[in-house]
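Support case: nicotinamide-adenine-dinucleotide complex. Customer-provided input:
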Amino acid sequence: MKLTVVGSGYVGLVTGACFAEMGNDVWCVDIDEKKIENLKKGIIPIYEPGLEDMVKRNFNGGRLKFTTDIGEGLEDTLFIFIAVGTPPDEDGSADLQHVLAVAREVGKRMQKYLIIVNKSTVPVGTADRVRDTVRDELNARDRGDLEFDVVSNPEFLKEGAAIDDFMRPDRIIIGTDNVRTAELMKELYAPFVRNGHPIFVMNIKSAELTKYAANAMLATRISFMNELSRLCEIAGADIESIRLGIGSDSRIGMPFLYAGLGYGGSCFPKDVKALIHTSKEFGLGADILAAVEKVNQEQRLYFVERVSAHFKGDLKNRLFGVWGLSFKPQTDDMREAPAIEIIGALRDRGASFRVYDPVAMELAKTMLGEKNIEYVSNYYDVLKDADALLLITEWNQFRRPDFERMKSIMKNPLIFDGRNQYDLMKMKERGFDYFSIGRDFIHGSTG
Ligand code: NAD
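Agent response - structure generated as follows:
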């Protein structure tokens, strides 16, 4: 089948590459000329495991093409996917300017029937706005006779595992009010659900809201565990034991029950905000989500205060080694990464840093700058003369470090672990002062 994907970021590029991998002819479009130029040369703009090989393979095979001109493939295309950003506006609502700009462009350029598929995360009711926008442009061209459908097809991939998630999705959601369109969408996605996973066809508004509901539910689990972790520390309980205890309940399940530094990234923070905003627009409260967001914001400051308290508030001339900067492992995405806020807050109080991340250092540099921060290329080098190590992102390589080597390099054998990576008892035996999240902080080690 022939399709166009507009927006070649995390979602658009993965979508385009995976559809091409399944033998479709795909145009990937972006307004960023540099990005498109690079993609044509095989330079991939983001770090995503497996993506580079897949893009190159399909580009060389002629199934994947890149352009800045949305009109390029439109005479052949049946599906046009919108996968542009929907960042938070100042009031927390999703900023739809990019989505509507694409809709306008489609209305200006389309020559034949198209299925316009919205993959960006957008508030309930956006498909109507996309439809109206396209229709207005067609009318302005005296082409009101051209037909098109608008479909909502939210994306659930996770950065860091995006290829796998797209190739083997848990489910596919198709929001449409047209039976024939639903069948065409199912045909397009059939190769991805050979494992028997479901394709749910529902009305457009339900599809739009399903995406927010999923992210809000996952964010809620994280904030719930973070809130509980604070109680654990004071009461002498261990959040890790509780995670196992409740996660093994089949009604609850294990995923997304980790206490840590709160959720970050390009999706959860903005989607929780946007859902709160939508609820308010409909005259409803969003009490649970407001609390989810509050707990999340507090969690990073909670970590900062703990570090600060250890040094009795005197952070001037303290040097911290930092392991991990990206918002989670296996990605270079720094959007809403806890590292930004934590390093920023400690730096404001006079601290300096040596930092390491396997893939996110260049992006981090653009966001955090270089004031009081040295970016080093080996994760043991960040420990040189460090007053403490801050473990912020749980990359695999930090799981089993050489603790003796660490001790010999650091000024103090002191670790603040925001991701609960190490065994409390063993850390004590190894001679570290070790602080983690919700693991019997006040009462000492529980093993
Ligand atoms: P991104 O910022 O990585 O990519 C967006 C791309 O769209 C950029 O390359 C930008 O240049 C391009 N763009 C903007 N306006 C354009 C236009 N008018 N024409 C052509 N290209 C244009 O964003 P992303 O992370 O891929 O997210 C895209 C959407 O998917 C968002 O709504 C997001 O919420 C949603 N989503 C993201 C993820 C994720 O993990 N990143 C997962 C599921 C859903």
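The first strand starts at residue 2 and ends at 6.

Case will auto-close in a few days if no follow-up is received.
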